[in-house]
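re: ur question from yesterday

yeah so i grabbed the chain u mentioned. its 191 aa long if i counted rite. heres the sequnce exactly as i have it in my notes:
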Amino acid sequence: SGDTSTEDYLSVSVPVRGHERNIYNDKEIAHMADVKRLIRWIYFFGAISGSFLIVVPFISMLRSSFFTDGHNYSLSNRLALLRRSKDIFAKRILYGSSLTFACVIGVSIFALSGFDRLFLEFHQASFANDLWQLNPDEDYLIMMFPRGFWFDATVIVLLAILVESAILFIISCTCLIRGRNLQLNKTLERY
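ran it thru and got these structure tokens back, copy pasting raw so excuse formatting
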């Protein structure tokens, strides 16, 4: 493998029959280099998604409330457009968090009913080689991180995503309810 930082990180020497040797073999080190590349791609797409979530709604709100295609709206009309944009953004977050919640529930059911199959399909989809197919009787990487570890890690990640989705759902619902209450109060004040 050409990733020296992964090789250095996995350079764990232990005495075996009187001789120092690396606990991980070349296949294990090469697989961890693949894992490191996969994680870098996940971080990259996470940064793109996060940027998208911040920039697009902001531009949309500014565009709809201040750049009104030549119309000369009053400040109160522009603020109303900004509020409506905020409601649209809150609805999108509501829909997105609901969809994420549903997807994670689906993956959770799949994981609980057949984790080995989920694990297999994840590796087949994520890696173009067979380096991930380690022998639990010989390869220390799989001995140190057995099936139970990966099951627990999957449960923790899925729970974290569910909590984040629930928080976004609650925040977006709160924004929408407050917006409707403000609108209702203004309507009632007129009468």
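noticed a couple things. The longest helix spans residues 75-126. also DSSP finds five helices and two strands in the chain.
anyway ttyl
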